[in-house]
Protein backbone atom coordinates (compact mmCIF):
# COMPACT_ATOMS: atom_id res chain seq x y z
CA UNK A 1 0.00 0.00 0.00
CA UNK A 2 1.11 3.59 -0.36
CA UNK A 3 0.56 4.36 3.29
CA UNK A 4 3.21 5.25 5.82
CA UNK A 5 3.72 3.44 9.13
CA UNK A 6 5.77 4.77 12.01
CA UNK A 7 6.68 1.98 14.43
CA UNK A 8 7.12 2.89 18.10
CA UNK A 9 8.20 0.04 20.38
CA UNK A 10 9.47 -0.18 23.92
CA UNK A 11 8.81 -1.53 27.41
CA UNK A 12 6.01 -0.42 29.73
CA UNK A 13 6.44 3.01 31.33
CA UNK A 14 9.10 4.02 28.81
CA UNK A 15 7.03 6.99 27.68
CA UNK A 16 6.24 5.44 24.31
CA UNK A 17 2.47 5.97 24.52
CA UNK A 18 2.81 9.68 25.19
CA UNK A 19 5.44 10.03 22.52
CA UNK A 20 3.45 8.07 19.95
CA UNK A 21 0.31 10.11 20.63
CA UNK A 22 2.09 13.46 20.37
CA UNK A 23 3.91 12.36 17.22
CA UNK A 24 0.68 11.27 15.58
CA UNK A 25 -0.87 14.64 16.44
CA UNK A 26 2.15 16.59 15.21
CA UNK A 27 2.14 14.71 11.92
CA UNK A 28 -1.64 14.42 11.52
CA UNK A 29 -1.55 10.61 11.43
CA UNK A 30 -3.83 7.96 12.88
CA UNK A 31 -2.64 6.64 16.24
CA UNK A 32 -2.98 2.88 16.72
CA UNK A 33 -2.41 1.45 20.19
CA UNK A 34 -1.65 -2.24 19.64
CA UNK A 35 -1.41 -2.90 23.38
CA UNK A 36 -5.13 -2.16 23.63
CA UNK A 37 -5.80 -4.97 21.19
CA UNK A 38 -3.93 -7.49 23.36
CA UNK A 39 -5.68 -6.05 26.40
CA UNK A 40 -9.07 -6.41 24.70
CA UNK A 41 -8.55 -10.10 23.94
CA UNK A 42 -7.33 -10.58 27.53
CA UNK A 43 -10.40 -8.81 28.89
CA UNK A 44 -12.66 -11.10 26.88
CA UNK A 45 -10.71 -14.23 27.93
CA UNK A 46 -11.16 -13.28 31.59
CA UNK A 47 -14.80 -12.33 31.10
CA UNK A 48 -15.45 -15.71 29.47
CA UNK A 49 -13.99 -17.51 32.47
CA UNK A 50 -11.14 -18.94 30.42
CA UNK A 51 -7.83 -19.57 32.23
CA UNK A 52 -5.36 -17.08 30.69
CA UNK A 53 -2.46 -19.47 31.37
CA UNK A 54 -4.12 -22.21 29.28
CA UNK A 55 -2.83 -21.34 25.81
CA UNK A 56 -5.01 -23.91 24.09
CA UNK A 57 -8.17 -22.65 25.78
CA UNK A 58 -7.20 -19.06 24.93
CA UNK A 59 -6.71 -19.97 21.26
CA UNK A 60 -10.10 -21.68 21.25
CA UNK A 61 -11.82 -18.72 22.89
CA UNK A 62 -10.19 -16.42 20.33
CA UNK A 63 -11.90 -18.32 17.51
CA UNK A 64 -15.28 -17.35 18.96
CA UNK A 65 -14.42 -13.65 19.22
CA UNK A 66 -15.67 -11.11 16.74
CA UNK A 67 -12.97 -8.45 16.92
CA UNK A 68 -13.73 -5.15 15.22
CA UNK A 69 -11.09 -2.46 14.80
CA UNK A 70 -11.80 1.06 13.68
CA UNK A 71 -10.60 4.65 13.71
CA UNK A 72 -12.39 7.56 15.33
CA UNK A 73 -10.92 11.06 15.56
CA UNK A 74 -7.63 9.65 14.34
CA UNK A 75 -7.48 7.13 17.22
CA UNK A 76 -7.86 3.37 16.89
CA UNK A 77 -10.92 1.79 18.49
CA UNK A 78 -11.64 -1.80 19.39
CA UNK A 79 -14.84 -3.75 20.01
CA UNK A 80 -15.29 -7.42 20.81
CA UNK A 81 -18.64 -9.06 20.10
CA UNK A 82 -20.12 -5.62 19.67
CA UNK A 83 -18.82 -4.21 22.97
CA UNK A 84 -16.68 -1.14 22.48
CA UNK A 85 -13.82 -1.31 25.00
CA UNK A 86 -12.01 1.47 26.84
CA UNK A 87 -11.22 1.98 30.54
CA UNK A 88 -11.94 -1.67 31.41
CA UNK A 89 -8.75 -2.56 29.51
CA UNK A 90 -6.58 -0.88 32.17
CA UNK A 91 -7.59 -2.87 35.26
CA UNK A 92 -5.15 -4.80 37.48
CA UNK A 93 -6.70 -8.08 36.32
CA UNK A 94 -5.97 -7.30 32.70
CA UNK A 95 -2.47 -6.04 33.58
CA UNK A 96 -1.75 -9.32 35.34
CA UNK A 97 -2.87 -11.59 32.50
CA UNK A 98 -2.08 -9.69 29.31
CA UNK A 99 1.48 -11.03 28.93
CA UNK A 100 0.20 -14.60 29.16
CA UNK A 101 -2.47 -14.04 26.55
CA UNK A 102 -0.20 -12.07 24.23
CA UNK A 103 2.36 -14.88 24.23
CA UNK A 104 -0.14 -17.21 22.53
CA UNK A 105 0.90 -17.47 18.85
CA UNK A 106 -2.71 -17.64 17.56
CA UNK A 107 -3.51 -14.41 19.37
CA UNK A 108 -0.51 -12.67 17.86
CA UNK A 109 -1.27 -13.96 14.38
CA UNK A 110 -4.82 -12.67 14.51
CA UNK A 111 -3.96 -9.28 15.96
CA UNK A 112 -0.97 -8.70 13.66
CA UNK A 113 -3.33 -9.28 10.74
CA UNK A 114 -5.74 -6.69 12.07
CA UNK A 115 -2.88 -4.29 12.77
CA UNK A 116 -1.64 -4.56 9.19
CA UNK A 117 -5.20 -3.94 8.03
CA UNK A 118 -5.10 -0.35 9.28
CA UNK A 119 -2.38 0.49 6.75
CA UNK A 120 -4.75 -0.29 3.88
CA UNK A 121 -6.65 2.91 4.55
CA UNK A 122 -4.52 5.29 6.60
CA UNK A 123 -1.06 6.58 7.43
CA UNK A 124 -0.35 5.77 11.04
CA UNK A 125 1.78 5.74 14.12
CA UNK A 126 1.54 2.35 15.83
CA UNK A 127 2.90 1.67 19.28
CA UNK A 128 3.61 -1.72 20.81
CA UNK A 129 6.33 -4.29 21.37
CA UNK A 130 6.84 -5.88 17.94
CA UNK A 131 5.73 -3.22 15.48
CA UNK A 132 9.18 -2.64 13.99
CA UNK A 133 10.24 -6.29 14.20
CA UNK A 134 7.10 -8.15 13.08
CA UNK A 135 4.13 -5.99 12.12
CA UNK A 136 5.87 -3.51 9.80
CA UNK A 137 9.47 -4.74 9.44
CA UNK A 138 9.85 -2.93 6.10
CA UNK A 139 8.98 0.55 7.27
CA UNK A 140 12.00 2.87 7.44
CA UNK A 141 10.41 4.70 10.40
CA UNK A 142 11.23 2.87 13.61
CA UNK A 143 11.88 4.18 17.10
CA UNK A 144 12.62 2.07 20.15
CA UNK A 145 11.67 4.10 23.22
CA UNK A 146 13.39 3.39 26.50
CA UNK A 147 14.04 5.07 29.83
CA UNK A 148 16.27 4.53 32.87
CA UNK A 149 15.04 1.88 35.29
CA UNK A 150 14.49 4.42 38.09
CA UNK A 151 12.58 6.80 35.83
CA UNK A 152 10.39 3.95 34.67
CA UNK A 153 9.87 2.81 38.27
CA UNK A 154 8.68 6.32 39.20
CA UNK A 155 6.27 6.37 36.29
CA UNK A 156 4.89 2.97 37.30
CA UNK A 157 4.22 4.16 40.83
CA UNK A 158 2.57 7.30 39.47
CA UNK A 159 0.36 5.10 37.31
CA UNK A 160 -0.53 2.94 40.32
CA UNK A 161 1.03 -0.07 38.65
CA UNK A 162 3.94 -1.35 40.70
CA UNK A 163 4.47 -5.11 40.66
CA UNK A 164 2.81 -6.20 37.47
CA UNK A 165 4.80 -4.03 35.09
CA UNK A 166 8.13 -5.52 35.98
CA UNK A 167 6.90 -9.06 35.36
CA UNK A 168 5.21 -7.94 32.18
CA UNK A 169 8.44 -6.53 30.72
CA UNK A 170 10.33 -9.67 31.62
CA UNK A 171 7.68 -11.89 30.08
CA UNK A 172 7.34 -9.71 26.99
CA UNK A 173 11.11 -9.74 26.41
CA UNK A 174 11.63 -13.45 26.98
CA UNK A 175 8.68 -14.99 25.13
CA UNK A 176 9.26 -17.17 22.08
CA UNK A 177 6.97 -15.39 19.64
CA UNK A 178 7.75 -11.75 18.82
CA UNK A 179 9.72 -10.82 21.95
CA UNK A 180 10.30 -7.17 22.75
CA UNK A 181 13.64 -6.13 21.26
CA UNK A 182 15.19 -3.33 19.25
CA UNK A 183 14.20 -3.80 15.60
CA UNK A 184 16.76 -3.77 12.83
CA UNK A 185 17.05 -0.19 11.66
CA UNK A 186 15.39 1.28 14.75
CA UNK A 187 16.76 4.34 16.50
CA UNK A 188 16.81 4.13 20.29
CA UNK A 189 15.33 7.15 22.07
CA UNK A 190 15.95 7.40 25.81
CA UNK A 191 13.15 9.52 27.24
CA UNK A 192 14.85 9.89 30.64
CA UNK A 193 17.16 12.39 28.99
CA UNK A 194 14.24 14.47 27.73
CA UNK A 195 11.24 16.53 28.67
CA UNK A 196 8.10 15.52 26.82
CA UNK A 197 8.56 18.36 24.31
CA UNK A 198 12.24 17.72 23.66
CA UNK A 199 11.48 14.01 23.31
CA UNK A 200 8.98 14.75 20.56
CA UNK A 201 11.50 17.03 18.84
CA UNK A 202 14.16 14.32 19.05
CA UNK A 203 11.71 11.79 17.57
CA UNK A 204 10.82 14.13 14.70
CA UNK A 205 14.52 14.59 14.01
CA UNK A 206 15.05 10.81 13.96
CA UNK A 207 12.13 10.33 11.58
CA UNK A 208 13.38 12.99 9.18
CA UNK A 209 16.72 11.18 9.04
CA UNK A 210 15.07 7.78 8.57
CA UNK A 211 12.88 9.03 5.73
O1 LIG B 1 1.33 -1.22 25.58
P1 LIG B 1 0.67 -1.89 26.74
O2 LIG B 1 1.50 -1.84 27.99
O3 LIG B 1 -0.73 -1.44 26.96
O4 LIG B 1 0.58 -3.43 26.30
C1 LIG B 1 0.02 -4.38 27.16
C2 LIG B 1 0.64 -5.73 26.89
O5 LIG B 1 0.23 -6.19 25.60
C3 LIG B 1 2.15 -5.81 26.88
O6 LIG B 1 2.68 -5.97 28.19
C4 LIG B 1 2.40 -7.04 26.03
O7 LIG B 1 2.25 -8.23 26.77
C5 LIG B 1 1.26 -6.98 25.02
N1 LIG B 1 1.66 -6.39 23.75
C6 LIG B 1 2.32 -7.20 22.84
N2 LIG B 1 2.63 -6.72 21.60
C7 LIG B 1 2.32 -5.47 21.26
C8 LIG B 1 1.67 -4.62 22.17
C9 LIG B 1 1.37 -5.11 23.43
O8 LIG B 1 2.61 -8.35 23.14
N3 LIG B 1 2.62 -5.05 20.01
UniProtKB/TrEMBL annotation:
Keywords: ATP-binding, Cytoplasm, Kinase, Nucleotide-binding, Transferase. Residues 6-207 form the Cytidylate kinase domain. It comes from the Bacteria. ATP binds at residues 10-18. GO terms for molecular function: kinase activity. Its EC number is 2.7.4.25. The keyword Oxidoreductase does not apply. It catalyses: dCMP + ATP = dCDP + ADP; CMP + ATP = CDP + ADP. It is found in: Cytoplasm. InterPro entries: Cytidylate_kin (IPR003136), Cytidylate_kinase_dom (IPR011994), P-loop_NTPase (IPR027417). Belongs to the cytidylate kinase family. Type 1 subfamily. HAMAP family: Cytidyl_kinase_type1. This is Cytidylate kinase.
Amino acid sequence: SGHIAIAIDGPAASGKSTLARLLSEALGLTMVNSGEMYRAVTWKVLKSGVDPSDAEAVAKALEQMDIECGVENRLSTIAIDGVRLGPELRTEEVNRSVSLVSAVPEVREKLVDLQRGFLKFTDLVMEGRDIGTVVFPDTPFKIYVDADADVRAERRVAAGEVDAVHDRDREDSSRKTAPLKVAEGAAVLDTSKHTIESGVDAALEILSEQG
